[in-house]
Design goal:
The chain is of the alpha/beta class. The chain has four domains: 6-180, P-loop containing nucleotide triphosphate hydrolases (Rossmann fold); 186-252, Helicase, Ruva Protein, domain 3, CATH 1.10.8.60; 271-373, Up-down Bundle (Zinc Finger, Delta Prime, domain 3), CATH 1.20.272; 435-633, no CATH class. Helix content is 49%, strand content 9%. The strands form four sheets. A five-stranded parallel β-sheet has the order 2-3-4-1-5, with helices on one face. The protein has a three-stranded mixed β-sheet with strand order 6-8-7. A three-stranded mixed β-sheet has the order 10-11-12, covered by helices on one side.
């Protein structure tokens, strides 16, 4: 007889020899002992984990000629020595028919099987059909098998093995007992390889066996196939093949995990040149960029598991040396950084599958790991606000705030009707004389109290927009009434003139804030307002059309139209997105223009703006406090 590969030579012949499937073997042994054998079984799971092997062992146990409890067969395990067991093991039993469903998948083959199942077995107790790759059978063929599978003859048992049980119709699965096989554990495969190496008189390093086990990826057959190949390529010393870790890596075309440890050390240190030099050495040595990305993703996953559960966690299916290496790498990064790095490497691996210059994309992906290290977490940024509050206390030093941008110089008063194309018709124009009485800002959003919370609501106007705001203690109703009174006074002075855009801005923004449309008020206050005989046009920069329509909805537009009627202006409004300018710079200019207007002395606004934490937040985010809400009054 010719050479027999390890996967066939060491194929289990008893339930006890099957590794990693105790939940299946225990159930089948109990069923045999209790004589509760079903007429149909479905064995599903990963490739090379024992589905067909257990089907053959079960067939041997059912047709074994020795009774359970006899001397040759003390338990429900097959004896393995009788004629039936020998024939099944060799694959030439008359009453155990193995069918490759990948090729015999049509309705004609299933009809022949159904006709043959009607006849009694030639010699043994049961006629057993083992359908391998059963999910390949067509739907029509499954339908032809339904009646036979539901009420088969007493002497017929069906066993179906598949890697895709979801492709088997539910009507078939409901008529069978379904056993889901597990991937074989790392330790079980390693113990099996160690036993086979001793039986084959092979000298193998422990690291080499661990590499073979990891390459199996939960499949016993895959690990044995790679081991068979490794033995054939191994050097022979004193008549015994010698398996080394370096030889296994060269055979599989993989790099040592020590390389990935050094790569991640360079990432943690921010050494871009060192990182690319090591990658260059790997690529020049013949390693495939896609394979390197896959191995690095696996190594980062192991480092993340070591970070979460420690070096000895059950989440790591690797050797003891690799566990220690993964734990060392985990100390270099936080959990968030490891998660982010793993995501970047996985995305890089996906990109390599359809890129021509794989090396360039791998280099770019690894450089992203270093660039991501320079990102400042938002938690750390916000913690600096609290630290700034301590440093701003009396007697402590505090960084000087960023200088505000100078306000635009005031221009000559524009005419009552302003064209959007006329110079000076934008935001930087000075108000008309009638604006001073009609543009009092809305102060109802500030509630006076010593304890206040600073937020960023509507922008308050610059000094040229009107008189000082109504005191905060007056409340929203009084403030809105004051605005209405001032507006009516302004219109009474110039009944024939259209109101200026800045006057309309103050009234409309205040009305929107009072009605609860704070976001719309804040957004519109940053825009360019043009009010003329055709109506009101507001151009808002730095926002898309979709988001603009969601913020300034129909209810907000209705309020704007109502306020325009009250101002005696045409009740037509158009809100459009402007050019993509630097919105932060635009807001900075508005903040600088407003900086000259100090809050009323002793007010809650003054107390909030003087708070060191608020000042620190303004320095970090270049922010402005537009109103203060006293939460204690709610």
């Amino acid at each position: 007889m010719g050479y027999q590969v390890l996967a066939r030579k060491y194929r289990p012949q008893r339930f006890a020899d099957v590794a990693g499937q105790d939940h299946v073997t225990r159930t089948l042994l109990n069923a045999l002992q209790q004589n509760r054998v079903a007429h149909g079984y479905i064995f599903s799971g990963h490739r090379g984990i024992g589905k067909t092997t257990i089907a053959r062992i079960l067939a041997m146990a059912l047709n074994c000629r020795n009774e359970v409890g006899s001397a040759p067969r003390p338990s429900a395990e097959p004896c393995g020595v009788c004629e039936s067991c020998e024939e099944i093991r060799q694959g030439n039993a008359v009453d155990v028919i193995e069918i490759d469903a990948a090729t015999n998948r049509g309705i004609d083959e299933i009809r022949e099987l159904r006709e043959a199942a009607r006849y009694s077995p030639a010699r043994d107790r049961y006629k057993i059909y083992i359908l391998d790759e059963a999910h390949q059978i067509t739907e029509a063929a499954f339908n032809a098998l339904l009646k036979t599978l539901e009420e088969p003859p007493a002497h017929v048992i069906f066993m179906m093995a598949t890697t895709q049980p979801e492709d088997i119709p539910q009507t078939i699965r409901s008529r069978c007992q379904h056993f889901s096989f597990h991937a074989v554990k790392f330790d079980d495969i390693l113990a099996q390889l160690r036993m086979i190496a001793d039986a084959e008189q092979v000298t193998a390093e422990e690291e080499a066996l661990a590499l073979l086990t990891e390459a199996g990826d939960g499949s016993m057959r895959d690990a044995l196939s790679i081991m068979d190949q490794a033995i054939a390529s191994a050097a022979v010393e004193s008549g015994r093949p010698v398996l080394s870790a370096a030889q296994i890596r060269e055979l599989m075309g993989s790099a040592s995990n020590a390389v990935f440890e050094r790569l991640l050390e360079a990432v943690a240190a921010g050494q871009s040149a060192e990182l690319l030099e090591q990658l260059n050495a790997l690529v020049n040595a013949g390693h495939n960029p896609s394979s390197l990305a896959r191995q690095m993703a696996r190594y980062l996953r192991n480092a993340l598991m070591a970070k979460l559960g420690g070096e000895h966690t059950g989440l790591l299916e690797i050797s003891a040396d690799e566990r220690a290496r993964a734990a060392r790498t985990a100390l270099l990064f936080s959990e968030e950084e490891l998660t982010r790095n793993l995501q970047i490497v996985l995305r890089t691996f996906d990109d390599l599958n359809y890129r021509q210059e794989q090396r360039f994309h791998l280099e770019l992906g690894l450089l992203k790991l270093i660039h991501a290290q320079r990102l400042l977490p938002i938690e750390e940024l916000l913690s600096g606000v609290a630290a700034g509050a301590v440093s701003a206390a009396p007697g402590s030093s505090r960084p000087a705030p960023h200088p505000a941008r100078p306000a635009a110089p005031s221009a000559a008063p524009p005419p009552a009707s302003i064209s959007p194309f006329a110079p000076g018709g934008g935001r930087g124009s000075a108000p008309a004389p009638q604006q001073s009485a009609a543009s009092a800002p809305m102060a109802g959003t500030a509630r006076s109290s010593p304890s206040a919370s600073a937020i960023a609501p509507e922008p308050s106007p610059g000094p040229a927009r009107g008189p000082a705001p109504v005191p905060a203690a007056a409340g929203p109703a009084a403030s809105y009434a004051a605005n209405a009174t001032l507006t009516e006074g302004a219109l009474a002075k110039a009944p024939q003139a259209a109101p200026h855009s800045e006057a309309a801005r103050q009234v409309i923004v205040s009305a929107l804030s009072a009605a609860g449309h704070v976001s719309a008020a804040q957004l519109l206050d940053t825009g360019e307002w043009v009010l003329d005989a055709a109506g009101l046009r507001i151009e808002v920069a730095g926002i898309g059309k979709k988001m603009l329509s969601l913020t300034v909805n129909a209810a907000a537009e209705k309020i704007i139209q109502q306020e325009l009627r009250g101002l005696g202006a045409p009740a037509r409004v158009m809100v459009v997105p402007g050019q993509k300018t630097d919105l932060a710079e635009h807001l900075g200019a508005r903040q600088a223009a407003r900086a000259t207007t100090a809050p009323p002395a002793g007010s809650v606004q003054e107390a909030a703006l003087a708070h060191p934490m608020v000042r620190r937040a303004q320095e970090i985010f270049h922010a402005e406090v537009r109103s203060v809400i006293d939460l204690r009054q709610k």
